[in-house]
């Protein structure tokens, strides 16, 4: 079983996010596109980033064996983004999500890491349905989800979120 382990692709390592990633998470969640498309997580200091990892990220990884992964380039060890499988309140089933630092966008890392997590989610974690949510204005995310094989299902609202979101879904092939 691959639970709570680093996952590898041809160019990337997907390492379960931990306290070694405080500086990276602080930087990532404060990028303009994260704030615009994912939302302000109120991470305004290294201490906030530490608490965010301990309170929001690590509990799911400890409980389910999967969650948020820090995406690292094999070539030089650079932390470039995050990709994960999330147990998200208000959604039935598992949600896949991704975010990358601006200088690493458009290089296929989101597709590569997400494709691997879909594969591992179905084959190792025994997940049968994986969802994704995105704002209607986030066209790049929608294109990536469709490239990954997810299909638009309907509009949804999550608890404590005023935004209407687009729900995509993929079901494990039998």
* Main pleated-sheet profile: 8 strands, mixed
In the CATH hierarchy, the third-tier topology is known as Aminopeptidase
* Counted beta strands: 8
Under CATH at level 1, the class stands as Alpha Beta
CATH architecture: 3-Layer(aba) Sandwich
Helix-strand makeup class? alpha+beta
Counting H and I runs of at least 4 residues, what is the number of helices? 5
Give descriptors for this structure.
174 residues; eight-stranded mixed β-sheet; single chain; 33% helix; Aminopeptidase
What does this structure look like?
With 174 residues, this protein is of the alpha+beta class. The protein has a single domain, classed as Gcn5-related N-acetyltransferase (GNAT) (Aminopeptidase, 3-Layer(aba) Sandwich), CATH 3.40.630.30. The chain is 33% helix and 27% strand. The protein contains 5 helices and 8 strands; from the N terminus they run E-E-H-H-H-E-E-E-H-E-H-E-E. The chain has helices at residues 22-29, 32-37, 46-64, 109-123, 139-147; strands spanning 7-8, 12-16, 68-73, 79-86, 94-100, 129-134, 151-156, 165-171. An 8-stranded mixed sheet has the order 1-2-3-4-5-6-8-7. A hairpin with a 7-residue loop joins strand 4 (79-86) and strand 5. The longest helix has 19 residues, at 46-64. It is globular. The mean pLDDT is 94.
